[in-house]
Fold this protein.
Amino acid sequence: MPIDPKFQKKRKKAGKEKGTTIWGPLDPPQKLGIRGTYVAVDWDICEGCGTCLEVCPQQVYDWTVTHDHPISEKKPLPAKELSCVQCYTCETECPVQAIRIIFPGPTGWERAVTFLMLSQIIVGIIYGALFGPHLGLPIPFYVGWFISAVALLFFFSSAIYYPRKGEPGKGKGTMDTTVLVDSGTYGIVRHPQILGGILLVSASILISQHWLAAIIGVPVSVSLYMETAKEEKGLMTKFGDDYKRYTQKVPRMNLLLGIARRLRRRNE
């Protein structure tokens, strides 16, 4: 029997090992539970073959001794699970299906940046809509509304294209793509969701024209842009040569260059 894909709902946390969450029930040495939340390994199923350690490009796993376990006396511990790039190689190649990979979403500082971004966008746009622009400049105000309309298409790119084009695995979430998406807005820029966030932050500044929106929005935009470098590294590892060719065809965040290249490809 493979690892339960709904273990987080059916099991309770039973502690941690080297910072990695343990999901019970526990009755060592026979029952060891599941180790990990986003890279989860069912130690009661795992045979300790080491395939996951061999195929993982990010070296997420560490060997851990499990004395007197009836199946094997060593198990892979996903000690660096947040380094996982969701390539799913370990999950698909595990001979006993003891591994489950789950997209973690924003973590730590990323959650804080996301909260600030959404707060800045919502409060700034509502302020401008209810009270008008703080500086009273009409042209930036209307430009801001135009940018916000365009930005929404990019901001929701993953929700629009991933379910249809990304081929998420069975029972997986929208973000758990197995195929490189390079069409639609992803054919214009490589990170349309992040670009959409930056454009919405900029639109909020133009619509509200309030100094507080700018003070929050500028560093948030810089943080979002810096996040693309981290994503690039993970996507390059996950998709390999396909992503390398994609980077040569589609710019990272340059919207105007992306549109120009897209039009040129259509005319070829």
